[in-house]
Amino acid sequence: MNMIVTDVTLSAAAAARVAAIAAKQEKPAILRLSVEGGGCSGFQYRFGLSDGIDAGDSIAETDGVKLVVDSISLDLVRGSEVDFVESLGGAAFRVTNPQAASGCGCGTSFAV
Question: What H or E segment, with its residue span, contains residue 20?
Fold first, then answer.
């Protein structure tokens, strides 16, 4: 059973970026956030367009764009916001995770 969650959010900027990428690739506007072991700090975030919503996924929605998170990853990202940031260093999806005890310079790795 899928569950709508409000404890993980997708910013309007991230939703707009996902919608643009999905339209170019002719895919649904669904961004999957998952957490894997590894990276410089112990865990790393993984992003990718998803073709659909899997059983057990939690869903957050902003401006018609869905952010889906599997149940194991949700425990590590609860309370987080996914944003899209453009700077001189480049453009990337960023996770602001209140559970992360530390992070690293690359912005995609964290420890709890």
Answer: helix 12-25
